[in-house]
Design brief:
This protein has helices at residues 11-16, 18-28, 48-62, 104-126, 128-135, 144-147, 157-168, 172-184, 193-197, 204-218, 238-249; strands spanning 3-4, 8-10, 31-35, 38-43, 66-67, 71-72, 75-76, 81-83, 86-91, 94-98, 142-143. By secondary structure, it is of the alpha/beta class. The chain folds into three domains: 1-66, YefM-like fold; 68-154, no CATH class; 157-249, no CATH class. It has a four-stranded antiparallel β-sheet with strand order 6-10-9-8. A three-stranded mixed β-sheet has the order 2-3-4. It is globular, with a radius of gyration of 19 Å. The two termini are 35 Å apart.
């Protein structure tokens, strides 16, 4: 049984904002927390359904089948090729990602990277809407060769991972943090977020930082610190930020 485990978080992300982990667990079910790209903790909603889902996920992972998305119906290919340690083969009109040569955790990570790179390169090639459609198996077909994905992981791996999360996320608070982490994955790290984000429009860098401060405060259960100045998340130019990330990625 193949199972989508898109509800993944790193240990560092969980340490920085555990309330976000708890909220995601309440909204989407069991959250798998990784340390050094390996499963370390499984957070479950304390309900019968939550416990049952968590047990099924645990048993699925023991069986070696805990994976992310493995097929893309609108990406085409002429002959098999190996990308990011995955064997990409034709499946119907689209492609399938064969990860059986890898261990389960490594396979899940590489499938996640493929998704991130594919979204980043599709956005550069045809725009954000086309990238979103591709992730949902919709839209016009695109040849894998035209996406020009790297054969091996490069310095943009973390950026691509956060980019696809921000691209697909509907919740404004989570999207703010995904954008922030994507900018933080660029050269200069988090210290360069303001400067990088200003490329999305005048004042957008400060708006993003203000929004991040608010999200972090709202997620802080302690309430010991005073709230930062008001931030209007709705004023963030979401798509402009995403295209700025595409531009800065150099794809």
């Amino acid at each position: 049984m193949w199972m989508d485990v898109g509800n993944l978080m790193s240990m560092s992300e969980a340490n920085q904002n555990f309330s976000l982990v708890a909220r995601r667990c309440e909204e989407k079910g069991p959250v798998l927390i990784l340390k050094n790209n390996k499963p370390r903790f499984l957070l479950l909603p304390f309900t019968r359904e939550g416990l049952e889902k968590g047990l099924r996920l645990y048993q699925t992972m023991l069986g070696g089948n805990a994976m992310r998305k493995l097929t893309y119906r609108t990406i085409t290919i002429d002959q098999p090729v190996e990308i990011l340690e995955l064997l990409i083969t034709k499946a119907g009109t689209g492609i399938a990602l064969d990860a059986h040569a890898l261990g389960d955790q490594r396979a899940g990570r590489q499938a996640t990277l493929f998704e991130g790179y594919a979204a980043l390169h599709m956005a550069a090639l045809r725009g954000l809407d086309a990238a979103r459609d591709m992730l949902q198996d919709k839209g016009e077909p695109v040849a894998l060769n035209d996406l020009r994905l790297p054969a091996q992981e490069d310095s943009r791996a973390l950026l691509a991972t956060w980019f696809v999360r921000a691209l697909a996320e509907a919740d404004p608070a989570r999207r703010v943090m995904y954008l922030y982490n994507a900018y933080g994955a660029l050269p200069g790290g988090y210290a360069g977020v303001h400067a990088h984000a200003e490329g999305a429009g005048p004042g957008q860098g400060q708006m993003l930082l203000d929004a991040v401060a608010h999200v972090r405060h709202d997620e802080d259960d302690s309430g010991d610190t005073p709230p930062p100045p008001p931030a209007d998340i709705s004023r963030l130019a979401w798509d402009a930020h995403l295209m700025q990330l595409v531009k800065l990625s150099g794809v």
